[in-house]
Amino acid sequence: MQVTIGCVQFAPAKAKVQENLDKIGEYVLQAAGEGADLVLFPESSPSGYFLEGGVLECALSADELGRELQMRLSGLDRPIDVALGFYEIDGKDLYNSAAYFEVSREEVRLVHRYRKFFLPTYGVFDEERFVGRGRDLGVFQTRFGTVGLLICEDVWHSILPALSAVAGATVLLVPSASPARGFKENEPDNLLRYDALLQSIAEEHGVVCVNAQLCGFEGGKGFIGGSQVVDPFGTVVGKGPVNEEHLLLCQLDLDLIPLARASSPLLSDLRACWGDITRIVSQLEH
Questions:
Q1: pTM (2 decimals)?
Q2: Looking at 39-43, 68-72, 189-193, which range is the least confident one?
Q3: What residues contact 42, with CB distance under 8 A and at least 6 apart?
Q4: Bridge-partner residues for 14, per DSSP?
């Protein structure tokens, strides 16, 4: 199956949710007009990332987010799937979440909502003070096959990509908001780390990795950009520029996934050992 995947890296106006949603709607229309079948936006796209105590004022439920998108996408002339990160409110609880929608001119249908599992609370990060953490995998069915959602730091822990692949994911979508930290080879250290992580995950598990990054500045902290799409052999198909707004479009053949897994059957080895792995985990818990 041939699919065109878009990554939108942009700089949201901090805490200006309606303004940012207008911009998101424009990017969806642009991506659809340029042939995208699926478009991924970064973590915390409607509000910006560093909100701290302002999360409550900017949080939306997943259903509210869908309605806001629908109001802005009446001009859509072809179906497109949209995934984006946002601060979510559910009753009295707040989360750093991502939602996946199937979008047509007639409706915006929520397919899945995922809540960030690993909340960084070190250095410039203080997420766990302001949002609760998720407790479930974000693996679900789409018209493109089985997709997994992970948010930013979730891919820095190898366990979640591995679990997502074992659960059937063939495409991993990773919305991120990563402030630049250090420099090496004329690029931020954390962007180089993302390069290594995404390529390694894709190659090890035979999955497509799609990463959309925020760019711009919040409170003197600059987000890296450098969004990328990696094929199941670990090859970078396309990459966005550092710290500037950009719509990255990449064509992929999803039929490469079984070929990649046949040529490097590490995922099948993992599945074959799964009973022993769960036994070892159970022993560690005691």
A1: 0.96
A2: 189-193
A3: 8, 9, 10, 84, 85, 175, 176, 177, 212, 213, 214, 227
A4: none
